[in-house]
Design goal:
Oligomer: single chain
Largest sheet: none
Order of helices and strands: HHHHHHHHHHHHHHHHHHH
Number of domains: 2
Mean pLDDT: 92
CATH topology of the largest domain: Cytochrome C Oxidase, Chain A
Radius of gyration: 25 Å
Shape: globular
CATH superfamily of the largest domain: Cytochrome c oxidase-like, subunit I domain
Structural class: mainly alpha
Strand content: under 5%
Distance between the termini: 51 Å
Bound molecules: protoporphyrin IX containing FE, copper (II) ion
Helix content: 55-70%
Length: 576
Amino acid sequence: MATQTPAIETHNAAASKPSRPLWLEVLHGWVTTVDHKKIGLMYIGYALFFLVVAGFEALLMRIQLAVPNNHFVSPQVFNGLFTVHGTTMVFFVGMPILFGFGNYLIPLMIGARDMAFPRLNAFSFWISAFGGILLYYSYIGGSGLYGAGSAPDVGWFAYAPLTSRVFSPGHSTDYWTLAVLLSGVGTIGTALNIVATTISMRCPGMKMSRLPLLVWLYLVTSCMTFVAVGPLTAAQIMLMLDRYAGSHFFDTQAGGSAVLWMHFFWIFGHPEVYILVLPAFAFANEIIPVFSRKAIFGYPAMVAASVGIGFISLGVWAHHMFTVGLGPGANTFFVLATMVISVPTGIKIFNWLATLWGGKIHFTVSMLFAIGFLFQFLVAGLTGIMLSVAPFDWQLGNSYFVVAHFHYVLVGAILFMLFSAFYYWYPKVTGRMLSEHLGKWHFWLFVIGFHLTFDFMHIPGLLGMPRRIYTYEADRGWMIWNMIVSSGAAIQAVATLLFVFNMVWSYFKGAVAGADPWDAWTLEWSTTSPPPAYNFAKTPTVASRRPLWDLKHPEDPDSNYETEQHLPRSSQEESL
Ligand code: HEM
Ligand SMILES: [Cu+2]
């Protein structure tokens, strides 16, 4: 016995060391992971949690507004609700869930084993997650005008002078500023990773002209993030200096400018809505062709339109400021710039329709949500063009018509496409199918709820109902519409809970998916479901935009729908 080497002893000692309880082992694995798939899932899980929280906040607001002269919540609480609902939905639901999908899918789609900077990836997630916790800590630590513990109540765009120490003497505005600032740092980190991974981690043969469109759109989104988040972060630091270091950047009384904050916020704010919608477009570019059994129509035009949207959307921000008095020159420029953005967006809509045209359409739940997205995004685009006409906006700016418009984009387009993406990629992530039966209930309930809520929300807006009011008189003619809107919101809530139930139930009871349940064509479907930790046993080599399809369907004349020469069939089988 004495003869054993110390190393062996240490090994035995380690073996004999009481191992951690399983739950702790699992927790440790997730908390310390740098694996892009796990980080992607943590982003998605965290965002789903906040979707339920912010959805609940929306429901509370809709209960308050369902009838006139209601006192279900106080004006202060209502101010907190729309501020936290809007901030949460944009920064702690939209951004993390879309970057979560990007994180999970991009390395798999380009044939890589992970993101370029795995530790930066983990850091970006945890700092964004901390931002969300900080925002809700404000309910405990933000000592506002109403004593200890109050939510930020300055609206999601936090206009000056509402954010000054005079109007917001407590810390709730500081928690809003720091929460959003940290989420910005995390977003920049993730965007950096996406750009570096896409440029430097592609497998052999994956030229930029063969990149899945999803990856192209995340590349554009990430570049926009670099440009858009900086000005907001700078403005937030200026705000903190105004609040604690005696500067007067946004204090009009002391030579500063409240309009300066608006410019900084919307230079970020408008590109932000495209940073949210481009990933939704990315999902549509993958899902609509697969369920139409046709390659996407106009791949190069889709790339060009996305890059076009990326650029133009950086130059339209003042359409949020038509009522500020920037003058006819500036207003005219921003009216025209905003209208121009409908050209590349229109190209996308036509290309999706052209892809559907003549296709063998499979109406899976994922496809139903994608078709819903297509219709609703078109409607949202049309009301957007209406609001880009300055005189029209002078009438309807800050009314419920505007609230209906942006929810038509955020819910009707982005949330619909997110649901579609869940039904499409859930089998890859879990190895099981989401129930199509429950999914069809989810879809139709959500469609009915959505249209009751946001179609009818336009009407009180046209009848003069301003946004952010916590109640209204009975003689305004807004009651019936608000009742319909609120009942629609309740139906959306039920549909969303049904979706959450389907996600949990299918994880244990769903049909086994196999590697490629949809007969798709991008590389993530060439791995097992779920994919192994190392993604690919051997780095694949691709020779077209639809590597997997070409392998499975050599008979398809549409196969290799790319002009370039590609590898002879045998080496392909061997390479994949
Ligand atoms: C799904 C159902 C939803 C309902 C019923 C809903 C309802 C509402 C309501 C009632 C308001 C307050 C309007 C006001 O008083 O001015 C609001 C504001 C807002 N919502 Fe939603 N919302 C929903 C989803 C979303 C989603 C998915 C997003 C973003 C991804 C979002 C982003 C916003 C923003 C940014 C505001 C403005 C907050 C502010 O004025 O500061 N909402 N929403
Ligand atoms: Cu805008």
